[in-house]
Design goal:
Layout lengths: L3 H16 L6 H22 L7 E9 L4 E7 L3 H18 L7 H19 L3 H22 L4 H13 L2
Antiparallel strand pairs: 1-2
Helix pairs in contact: 1-2, 1-4, 2-3, 2-4, 3-4, 4-5, 5-6
């Protein structure tokens, strides 16, 4: 199965599911869902032809009145970034097992993953921008709610750099 849209929608659905799990079993659910996401990345690795073409591309009309399309695909630069993103999320979740996290934390991590996946597979500027902004929002809240040290000052700088640019 080599449908990129599934790689994009699975973390978003996972984020919704994980946000409603209020027990400590959220970490196991998050780990299983992130490993499924990593497993779904494997067909793209195996079927990728290393040439200069865009592969597995899909396109839909998004806002037709403005001529905006939703275009996703993989090339030789985006595939390693997709592998890195989907490979690091299970490690991030495993690293949080020593802390008492509930589903909200893991939901934000999954939502961040969905945004990053969109950033790396988008083929048009509008989709890239939407993915970039979608990834920044959960990063802000993860830093604000579960950050360590001087997290208020860090989040103010984060806000100034990325939101007010």
């Amino acid at each position: 199965m080599d449908n990129l849209f599934i790689l994009l929608i699975l973390p978003a659905i996972s984020a919704i599911i994980l946000a409603f799990i209020k027990t400590s079993s959220a970490k196991w659910a998050a780990l299983v869902l992130s490993l499924i996401q990593l497993g779904l990345t494997l067909p793209f690795i195996c079927n990728f032809v290393p040439d200069a073409s865009i592969q597995f591309s899909q396109s839909w009309n998004w806002i037709s009145s403005l001529g905006i399309q939703f275009q996703i695909g993989l090339d030789g630069i985006s595939l390693p970034m997709l592998i890195l993103t989907n490979g690091l999320i299970p490690l991030i979740i495993l690293a949080s097992f020593g802390h008492q996290q509930k589903g909200g934390f893991y939901g934000l991590v999954s939502f961040m993953q969905a945004g990053l996946v969109l950033v790396f597979i988008s083929l048009d500027a509008f989709s890239f921008y939407m993915g970039w902004e979608a990834a920044l929002i959960p990063i802000y809240f993860i830093c604000a709610l579960w950050g360590d040290g001087n997290r208020i000052s860090i989040n103010l700088k984060f806000f100034c750099i990325y939101i007010l640019r």
